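Following up on my earlier thread - several people asked me to post the actual chain instead of describing it. Fair enough. Here it is, all 156 residues.
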Amino acid sequence: MALIAAVASPAAADPTTGPVRCARDVVSADLWDKQVGLLMRDHPYDSVMAARVLGQGYAYLLTAMNHRGESLGLAPSKLVDIGVHTIILDTVAYAELCEKFNDGVFLHHVPKADMKNDGSVIKTAHIVAADGWEVDLPLWTDAADCGPCHPGNDSH
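Reply from S.P.:
Thanks for posting it. Predicted structure:
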């Protein structure tokens, strides 16, 4: 239910997670604007959609960092994965994110080729919400199939 609460009332506080956090507050305004611009350049998004996708990409990655080594089988939706790739392809900024939020350990991205349809995407959205991040639910329900990321100790 934390997911619904996070979506329905972003300003509300949940007693188990505290106030809902917005991924927009994690990076500098310049970096945010740059990455929103990259999404708009590479995809048919306006600035609002690009910001939504980027924010969920950050929420996913920061959740994966928070649960590194737990082998939870986290998986972004196809739309959220676009935000993830925009973040990780900006390698200098991504390395700095890992330094700041992952104890200096680089969180590798090791995708697998096979798709799966096991509820991982919605399960991941619930974990993101339980970690206190704002969840934009429509971006998590775009497809049941997801490309599983390697659930290892140092990757997502």
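The radius of gyration is 14 Å. That should answer part of your original question.
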